[in-house]
């Protein structure tokens, strides 16, 4: 099964070797479309909604959700990206470097922010993202969309929109792309 | 010993590029309504300046505060240094109070290196004698990179021609800039009267010229060094007026620069001496951008040393 170079994956990157495919490309596409519908339904439309993808895994997914919403409602949502490196709680414990420059060009005050990431695991990245977001304005609400919720939460954080709930072992790696979702190991 | 930044040569070309790329993230932070991140919460940074400085000290302290570090300012004038305390005793006292990083400026070359050997804390050289001023070189590189769009990761300054003009002899900025600019691939020409060049300039990776007018039309960046007026008694130039007429960037000379060419100066400027009074305000003078970039570059250096967990030089 496929191997993929993941230089940025914690703790030090490496090559991902897949063991099992749990979602196909079609499954990911359908889940993306469903999440788009759920975002529209939950917010009774799209007034004030902003999509923000977490660097790096959430960026393509936020774009894919925005594309799906554009197909459904013919609305182009504002789209941003956020890098939470400087807000992490493990700075000094492992190498922490930003992957990209944060790009949020709208004031978030009064908006409904939908944070988008590929995998929800311990919740620590989302905690960092919530703190980072508050530096861009006081959002009316923040919602969380993820393709995979793999459990093992270390903080009281829960997603609003989920592609798939996926029971995993702590030492496994979940790899999410538009081509599918696979469970495997980092070598 | 924790990682320190003592010389541009500590970084290498890859290390330089990595800091410039990290600086992009801190420029974004600096442009926000709340220009502060919690990255260095709980870390303590002390600035230890044995020489006068406004912009460098303010810039470092602003950078540290924007990273949420605690900042202490050590004023030599009101300290036990006045009672004859040695540098070693002073820094070991500071370290005993739990400092994580010491920013040092001193009038003698090599003091930051010695301090780095005495303490476990990280040390950043903020200027030592005529030797080096690495963060100035980094902010100069970042300014050129962003103003001229030189963002490639591999030899970003390839093909750029940079003239460093003026008192190279006494300039730590010139020494650090030559190391950094050439490491990134630029061609550097130093332009100065022979009396203001160090004897070892032949061993530097630069061209030397005594004729500013012939170099002027070819350069992409003209970098003016401060004429150190306090050294005029050394009679290294016959008169300031003669210096200005031969080596000053007068409005007439500025008019002969290529359209895209940048005018840079590390400050503080002597308007009317090395730089024409109006020239510093021309659109292609990026002197205030240098100052603004200085804060973001120093955030990158402090984060790199204290927070990133990544070694300073590229593996």
Description:
The complex is a heterodimer of chains A (about 190) and B (about 325). Chain A is an alpha/beta fold and about 190 residues long. Chain A has one domain: Rossmann fold (3-Layer(aba) Sandwich). Chain A contains three helices and nine strands. In chain A, the strands form two sheets. In chain A, strands 4-3-5-6-7 form a five-stranded parallel sheet. Chain A has a four-stranded antiparallel sheet with strand order 1-2-9-8. In chain A, α1 packs across α2. The longest helix of chain A has 18 residues. Chain A is globular. The mean pLDDT of chain A is about 95. With about 325 residues, chain B is an alpha/beta fold. Chain B has two domains: about 140 residues, 3-Layer(aba) Sandwich (Rossmann fold); about 160 residues, Rossmann fold (3-Layer(aba) Sandwich), CATH 3.40.50.1370. Chain B contains ten helices and nine strands. Chain B has a five-stranded parallel sheet with strand order 7-6-5-8-9, covered by helices on one side. Chain B has a four-stranded parallel sheet with strand order 2-1-3-4, sandwiched between helices. In chain B, β5, α6 and β6 form a beta-alpha-beta unit. In chain B, α5 crosses α10. The two termini of chain B are about 20 Å apart. The mean pLDDT of chain B is about 95. Classes of the chains: A alpha/beta (about 190), B alpha/beta (about 325). At the A-B interface, loops of A face α1 of B.
Fold blueprint:
The complex is a heterodimer of chains A (187) and B (315).
Chain A (H helix, E strand, L loop, with lengths): L2 E4 L7 E11 H18 L6 E6 L2 H17 L5 E4 L29 E9 L3 H11 L6 E9 L11 E5 L7 E5 L2 E7 L1
Parallel strand pairs in A: 3-4, 3-5, 5-6, 6-7
Antiparallel strand pairs in A: 1-2, 2-9, 8-9
Helix pairs in contact in A: 1-2
Chain B lengths: L11 H19 L13 E6 L5 H12 L3 E6 L11 H10 L4 E6 L4 H8 L3 E7 L5 H14 L13 E5 L6 H12 L3 E5 L15 E3 L2 H4 L5 E4 L15 H8 L3 H5 L6 E3 L22 H20 L9
Parallel strand pairs in B: 1-2, 1-3, 3-4, 5-6, 5-8, 6-7, 8-9
Helix pairs in contact in B: 1-5, 1-10, 2-10, 5-6, 5-10
């Amino acid at each position: 099964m496929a191997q993929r170079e993941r230089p940025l994956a914690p703790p030090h990157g490496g090559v991902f070797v897949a063991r099992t495919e749990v979602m196909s490309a079609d499954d990911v596409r359908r889940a993306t479309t469903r999440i788009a519908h759920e975002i529209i339904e939950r917010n009774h439309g799209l007034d004030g909604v902003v999509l923000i993808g977490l660097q790096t895994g959430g960026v393509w997914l936020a774009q894919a959700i925005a594309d799906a919403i554009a197909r459904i409602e013919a609305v182009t949502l504002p789209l941003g990206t956020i890098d939470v490196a400087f807000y992490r709680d493990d700075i000094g414990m492992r190498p922490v470097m930003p992957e990209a420059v944060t790009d949020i060009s709208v004031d978030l005050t009064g908006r409904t922010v939908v944070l988008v990431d590929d995998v929800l695991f311990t919740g620590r990245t989302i905690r960092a993202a919530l703190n980072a977001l508050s530096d861009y304005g006081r959002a009316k609400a923040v919602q969380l969309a993820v393709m995979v919720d793999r459990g093992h939460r270390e903080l009281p954080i829960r997603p609003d929109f989920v592609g798939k709930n996926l029971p995993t072992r702590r030492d496994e790696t979940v790899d999410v792309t538009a081509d599918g979702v696979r469970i495997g190991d980092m070598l | 010993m924790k990682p320190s930044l003592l010389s541009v040569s500590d970084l290498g070309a890859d290390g330089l590029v990595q800091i410039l790329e990290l600086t992009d993230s801190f420029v974004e932070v600096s442009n926000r309504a709340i220009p502060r991140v919690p990255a260095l919460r709980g870390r303590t940074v002390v600035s230890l300046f044995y020489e006068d400085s406004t912009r460098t000290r303010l810039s470092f302290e602003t950078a540290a505060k924007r990273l949420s570090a605690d900042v202490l300012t050590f004023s030599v004038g009101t300290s036990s240094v006045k009672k004859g305390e040695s540098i070693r005793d002073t820094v070991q006292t500071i370290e005993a109070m739990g400092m994580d990083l010491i920013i040092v400026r001193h009038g003698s070359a090599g003091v930051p290196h010695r301090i780095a050997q005495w303490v476990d804390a990280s040390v950043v050289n903020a200027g030592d004698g005529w030797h080096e001023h690495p963060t100035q070189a980094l902010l100069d590189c970042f300014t050129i990179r962003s103003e001229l769009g030189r963002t490639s990761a591999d030899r970003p300054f390839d093909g750029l021609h940079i003239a460093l003009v003026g008192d190279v002899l006494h300039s730590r900025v010139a020494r650090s800039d030559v190391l950094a600019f050439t490491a990134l691939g630029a061609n550097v020409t130093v332009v100065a009267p022979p009396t203001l060049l160090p004897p070892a300039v032949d061993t530097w990776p630069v061209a030397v010229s005594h004729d500013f007018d012939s170099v002027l039309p070819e350069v992409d960046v003209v970098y003016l060094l401060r004429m150190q007026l306090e050294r005029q008694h050394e009679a290294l130039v016959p008169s300031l007026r003669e210096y200005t007429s031969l080596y000053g960037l007068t409005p007439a000379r500025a008019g002969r620069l290529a359209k895209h060419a940048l005018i840079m100066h590390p400050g503080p400027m002597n308007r009317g001496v090395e730089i024409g009074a109006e020239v510093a305000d021309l659109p292609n003078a990026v002197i205030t951008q240098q100052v603004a970039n200085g804060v973001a570059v120093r955030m990158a250096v402090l984060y790199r040393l204290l927070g990133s967990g990544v070694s300073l030089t590229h593996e």
